[in-house]
Structures are given as structure tokens and as C-alpha cells.
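Structure first, sequence second, as always.
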């Protein structure tokens, strides 16, 4: 997951290099940027954001090549930046990418102002002190393809409204304090021909309940739900071919490991260790190592050293 975040940030930086031209941005966008700077207390981070520099050249800012609109704002890696994500971001109406990453002193909630950014495709708020709920208004950002809210202090349940997003194919809200169940219809509108498989990373929260039966109809590529408080009979779990990584370790799963799941030929990483599973492992399990299955109640058979009686 860390690798994914780094890749995204690098991609954002690369995009900035590719599209930033030496020109002045749209006047409304410029006013919004200056309001953001002011709301954060005119910090050193935005030292380049002055009338002496063309605003498409300002640090963290990306303009569109053909229009003068600001399409990307990526604020990252500054332990000195304090305050909350300013409402003034709503003034950047053409934004496609918004990143607040590795800002340990940025706190407060995800502001409702973000709901106005209806062109937003990529929303990354990660490694910050941002708290409060994962707002249900994110379900109104119809262009969203990727939502990364990992490594924050978010609480409450995952809003079912996210299921309505037609282009969303990746959700990472790992390492927060989420509670409640997984919403059933997540990724139900995903067009895999266009967007590839879905990935869902929610490790290290306090999610409860089971994996909704509807997920059996979703083309998942990665599902990481490790270190939660999930409690369900795994025997009934069914997943589609195409899943390459499934980590359910450190939960309270019971029942047995289904042959359908262990037998998925796409599955490369599989981990159900540290649960309460029991019974004989299916034949497909033998291609993984014993550490994929250890620390359960009474699993037996290869690759575990415990023979079944
Ligand atoms: C953060 O503040 C410290 C102390 O004022 C300073 O030395 C450092 O350069 C600042 N870092 C950034 C990224 O502005
Ligand atoms: C999960 O809940 C338990 C019990 O309420 C609590 O001790 C723990 O800190 C919580 N973990 C997270 C990641 O929120
Ligand atoms: C999915 O996307 C492909 C490629 O863009 C398109 O041809 C197809 O009609 C789409 N399917 C649905 C159900 O929208
Ligand atoms: C599965 O997860 C456990 C617990 O985090 C870890 O110790 C183990 O190495 C993992 N197994 C594999 C095969 O990655």
C-alpha cells in the first residue's frame, strides 16, 4: 500500500511536469489559491505563491495545457503545515486531482466544500491528522476514480453512498478508526473493461460483520481487510477469478477455507492467518505457504504441518 501511495504521488508530480506551462492561471483559480494560502496562515510552504510568479508555476499547482484552469493541487510532505483543509479549495472548480499527503499537522474534518469539486477524479488525503467521518457527500463526486484516505484518524462507518460512484475502482482507507459493516453494493457499477479490477484496502480499522455476498459479483483485484474485527463464516465466501491478493488476516473469521477461493488461479497472495478457522484445507491451499494459514483454531492439512485426523 505504501508503494501505491508513492506511485500515485510520483504520478501526480509527473503530470505536473508534463502539463505546467509558463503562464498565468484563470483569475478565479488564482483567487482560490491565495485564499487557501491565507487560510493556512501564509506558511513558508507556499512561498512561491506570489504575484512575482505565474500561478501555473506555483509549487504544488498543475494547470491544464490548453485552458488556463488549475486541474491539480498536490500539497505534500511538510511537517510544519498546520490547520485544516481550507474551504477555499471549493473555488478550484476545475480540479481533477486533489492531494494532501504526509502532512502530520493538518487536522480537522474533510470539509464539505470538497463536495463542490464535481470534476475530481483523484482524491488523496493520507498520512495526516484529519479526523471525523468519511463524509457521505463523497458519493456525489461522480467523476471519482480513486479515493485514498489512508493513514488518518477517520472514525465511523464507510458511507454506502460510495457505491453510487460509476467510475470508482480503488478505495484505500487503511489505518484509520473505522467501525461498522462493509457497504454491500461497493463497486457494483464498475466497468472492468474500461477500468480494470477493483481494489479495496481497509486494513487496520475496526470494521465488523462479514464480506457482503454482492462482492462475489465484483471483479476484485486486491482485497485487504486485515486487522479488523470482521466476524463471519468464511465457508460461504465466493470471489471472482481475477483476484490477485486477498488478505483477511487478524480478524475473527470462523468456519473453513472454501475450495472455490483457495482454487482461484489468479490468487498470488492469500492470507487468512490469525483467525478462528477450522477444518481440512482444500487442495488449492497447498500452493501457498503455511504462514498464510497459521494461528487459527483448528485448520489442518497441507501446507500446515498439522495433519488432519
Ligand atoms: C519547518 O520548520 C523548521 C523550524 O522552523 C525549519 O527548520 C524547517 O526548514 C521547516 N521545514 C519546512 C519543510 O518548511
Ligand atoms: C478497535 O477497538 C478496540 C476496542 O474498542 C480498541 O481498543 C482499538 O484501539 C480499536 N482499534 C482501532 C484501530 O481503532
Ligand atoms: C464498458 O466499457 C467498454 C469500453 O469502454 C464499453 O465498450 C462497454 O459498453 C462498457 N460496458 C458497460 C456495461 O457500460
Ligand atoms: C500473513 O499475515 C501474517 C500476520 O500479519 C504474517 O505474519 C504472515 O507472514 C503473512 N503470511 C504471508 C504468507 O505473507
Amino acid at each position: 500500500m505504501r508503494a501505491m501511495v508513492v506511485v500515485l504521488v510520483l504520478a501526480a508530480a509527473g503530470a505536473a511536469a508534463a502539463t505546467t506551462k509558463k503562464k498565468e492561471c484563470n483569475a478565479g483559480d488564482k483567487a482560490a489559491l491565495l485564499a487557501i494560502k491565507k487560510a493556512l496562515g501564509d506558511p513558508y510552504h507556499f512561498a512561491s505563491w506570489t504575484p512575482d510568479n505565474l500561478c501555473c508555476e506555483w509549487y504544488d499547482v498543475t494547470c491544464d495545457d490548453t485552458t488556463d484552469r488549475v486541474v491539480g493541487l498536490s500539497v505534500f510532505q511538510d511537517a510544519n503545515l498546520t490547520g485544516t483543509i481550507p474551504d477555499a479549495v471549493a473555488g478550484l472548480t476545475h480540479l481533477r486531482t486533489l492531494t494532501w499527503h504526509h502532512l502530520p499537522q493538518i487536522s480537522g474534518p474533510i470539509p464539505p466544500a470538497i463536495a463542490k469539486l464535481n470534476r475530481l477524479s483523484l482524491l488523496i488525503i493520507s498520512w495526516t491528522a484529519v479526523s471525523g467521518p468519511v463524509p457521505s457527500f463523497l458519493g456525489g463526486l461522480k467523476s471519482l476514480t480513486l479515493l485514498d484516505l489512508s493513514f488518518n484518524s477517520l472514525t465511523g462507518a464507510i458511507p454506502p453512498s460510495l457505491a453510487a460512484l460509476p467510475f470508482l475502482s480503488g478505495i484505500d482507507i487503511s489505518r484509520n478508526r473505522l467501525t461498522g459493516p462493509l457497504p454491500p453494493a461497493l463497486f457494483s457499477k464498475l466497468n472492468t473493461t474500461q477500468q480494470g479490477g477493483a481494489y479495496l484496502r481497509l486494513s487496520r480499522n475496526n470494521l465488523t460483520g462479514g464480506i457482503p455476498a454482492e462482492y462475489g459479483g465484483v471483479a476484485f483485484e486486491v482485497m485487504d481487510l486485515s486487522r479488523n474485527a470482521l466476524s463471519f463464516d468464511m465457508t460461504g465466501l465466493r470471489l471472482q477469478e481475477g483476484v490477485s491478493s486477498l488478505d483477511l488476516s487478524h480478524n475473527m473469521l470462523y468456519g473453513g477455507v472454501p475450495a472455490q477461493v483457495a482454487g482461484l488461479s489468479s490468487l498470488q497472495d492469500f492470507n487468512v492467518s490469525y483467525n478462528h478457522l477450522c477444518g481440512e484445507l482444500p487442495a488449492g491451499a497447498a500452493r501457498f505457504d503455511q504462514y498464510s494459514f497459521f494461528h487459527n483454531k483448528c485448520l489442518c492439512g497441507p501446507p500446515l504441518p498439522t495433519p488432519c485426523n
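Margin note: The pocket of 2-acetamido-2-deoxy-beta-D-glucopyranose (ligand 2) is lined by residues 177, 204-206 (CB under 6 Å).
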